[in-house]
Design brief:
The chain is an alpha+beta fold and about 350 residues long. Helix content is about 55%, strand content about 15%. It has 11 helices and 7 strands. A 7-stranded mixed β-sheet has the order 2-1-3-7-6-5-4. A hairpin with a 2-residue loop joins β4 and β5.
């Protein structure tokens, strides 16, 4: 928080106790950081005492915890009951809320699982001396974030706000592989529609892509708003020196949002182009059928006339009348065929 960078520079002596692994169900990791370095693992019931020590930051990672575990964490770190109620339930909208000098941030996650987009949520509690992440649903482990932060102790000395930035940056960066995968599929559909009408299977795939992009847009859009609030100074709990970092996350989120909107427009073009191609194909078929109907109308009309039961009709008694009628029919049909073919109807 705003005081996080300052109090990390005043480090108390660390008691020499054995590391306590955070191995209980729902707890992914729980550690203590001093001066940007991880000094030991702790249990949940120790978190409050360590977080109150000047210069110490407790970083706890939870994955789909039980309500009882969340209440234990809340009791240790004095988390707000409304935030705990939200964190215990999935399907929360991305948001940032301030409770005193603490923040509660919700962000939607997205990743590929067996070629399909899976969505999840991360709820982040940030306060003086602690950061708690709660993951629900599909979400990549934040071990990579921990490793990256621990590899750069100088940056990690900036405190809780830097950890919040690192987590949000990781979430936003994970949108990119999903968008790139959709981009490849959209490019393939766009290439197909330029050469031929899409098959029924491709049209179904197009609808699925549009639905996935809409869901992804609903996930990314609110994260942009979250980053905007963190990037501006309207939240007193955020250290002003961290604003440029949150601005960088905001830029990445905006770029992802713009790419999603561009892909939605391309899919709309592909759909419209396919509809126009289908209509053109139907028009071409209708023209061909009309041309053949006009050609076949000639022998039909002549045969109908000479099929009438009248005794006195021209050329009925002429020995070459039959051949003359066939010649006229062939000549007229050939003329019509050549005209229709010249006009592109056949």
């Amino acid at each position: 928080m705003a005081q996080g960078q300052a109090h990390l520079r005043h480090v108390e002596s660390v008691p020499s106790v054995a590391d306590v692994p955070a191995g209980e169900p729902g707890v992914v990791a729980a550690g203590i950081y001093v001066a940007g370095r991880r000094i030991r693992d702790i249990s949940i019931d120790e978190a409050g005492a360590w977080a109150r020590k000047a210069g110490h930051v407790v970083w706890i990672g939870l994955h789909e915890p039980s309500l009882e575990l969340l209440e234990r964490v809340a009791a240790q770190l004095n988390l707000h009951p409304l935030a705990i109620e939200d964190a215990s339930k999935a399907h929360q909208q991305p948001k940032v809320e301030q409770y005193g000098d603490a923040l509660f941030v919700v962000a939607r996650t997205a990743q590929l699982e067996d070629g399909q987009i899976a969505f999840g949520e991360t709820h982040i509690f940030v306060g003086r001396g602690y950061v708690v992440t709660v993951r629900h649903g599909a979400s990549t482990s934040y071990k990579a974030v921990r490793d990256r932060c621990e590899s750069c102790p100088t940056s990690l000395t900036q405190g809780e706000d830097y950890i919040l930035y690192a987590i949000l940056d990781f979430i936003v960066d994970n949108y990119r592989p999903v968008i790139d995968n959709i981009q490849a599929e959209v490019d393939d559909l766009e290439e197909q529609v330029l050469h031929k009408s899409l098959a029924r299977r491709d049209i179904d795939h197009l609808y699925h892509l549009r639905r996935d992009l809409l869901r992804l847009r609903r996930a990314v859009g609110p994260v942009v708003d979250v980053c905007k609030r963190l990037e501006h100074a309207d939240l007193i709990a955020v250290d002003k020196e961290m604003m440029p970092l949150f601005r960088d996350v905001l830029d990445h989120a905006k770029r992802a949002e713009e790419d999603i909107d561009a892909l939605r427009e391309v899919l709309a073009f592909v759909f419209e182009a396919n509809m126009m191609a289908g209509q053109a194909q139907q028009t071409d078929v209708a023209r061909r059928l009309a041309a053949w109907a006009a050609i076949l109308a000639v022998p039909t009309a002549v045969a109908g006339i000479y099929g009438m039961n009248f005794e006195h009709m021209p050329e009925l008694k002429w020995q070459y009348g039959y051949y003359m009628v066939l010649g006229i029919i062939a000549a007229v049909c050939s003329l019509l065929y050549l005209r229709f073919r010249k006009n592109g109807w056949l």
